[in-house]
Design a protein that fits this description.
- The chain is mainly beta.
- It contains no helices and eleven strands.
- The chain is elongated and about 50 Å long.
């Protein structure tokens, strides 16, 4: 089994910064992609950014230049640094992980999410 746990959410004012963490645990051999999605109130889930196992990252237009994703392979953890937060960034941020286990089986696992609220 693979478990995904997010942390780091909170209530901040516009213009502030937050760093979210996504930790993966279990019988993991290789973590391929680590992706952040978000779902705002009354909205559909949307893609935020992805980091691949080589470190290359892709971003949604709405966060490019403000958000930065990175990963620590030794800790099986991805980080989402969010700067210059805006009220429209308010959402539950959810981590998705694509990985393989020690038997070569693929896993597509989701965390429960962490709430980010940007409000004055």
């Amino acid at each position: 089994q693979v478990q995904v746990e997010e942390s780091g959410g909170g209530l901040v004012q516009p213009g502030a910064s937050l760093r979210l963490s996504c930790e993966v645990s279990g019988s993991i051999f290789r973590t391929k992609e680590m992706t952040w999605y978000r779902q705002g109130p009354g909205k559909q889930r949307e893609f935020v950014c992805t980091v691949y196992d080589g470190g290359i990252a892709t971003y949604a237009d709405s966060v490019r230049g403000r958000f930065s994703i990175s990963r620590d392979n030794a800790k099986n953890t991805a980080y989402l640094q969010m700067n210059n937060l805006k009220p429209e960034d308010t959402a539950v941020y959810i981590c998705n992980v694509l990985c393989t286990d020690e038997f070569g089986d693929a896993h597509n696992s989701w965390g429960q999410g962490t709430q980010v609220t940007v409000s004055s």
